[in-house]
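User: Here's a chain of 159 residues. Predict its fold as tokens.
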Amino acid sequence: ITMFFGGGMIPTFILINRLHMVNTVWAILIPGAFNVWNMILARTYYQSIPKELREASSIDGANEIQHFFKIMIPVCKPIIAVLALWSFVGMWNSYFDALIYLNDADLQPLQLVLRSILVQNTPQPGMIADIQSTAEMAKVAEQLKYATIVVSSLPLLIM
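Assistant: Prediction complete.
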């Protein structure tokens, strides 16, 4: 499923459709879970860890599983945290995938709901006759936009 660069929107949709993942949560989670750039970064980080750590743990009597859980995981916490943060922010900001793959309103993420609120409350110039009503509608739309930015940014600020 993963490539170094994306194959495009239509081939990706055909793949998701043939895997019967359209209108499921998996259509959003699985393609975003496998990112080649993250794998390259993690591999580079793992290769930068000195081999002497493995030798020292084997001298201390640790087997491969103990070495992995007691040495490698704690040493790799920074790269795991960075990749988790990048993945979370990437998933949080991607409303377009949900727009394409999810038709059920119950499955739509917050970003798609907020986007629809913004689109519905944008004033249309031909619909409003007087200038005062246009200005009031523009003000309401602007306030909704700012509220949407605050609501969508709050989880990222908490992290």
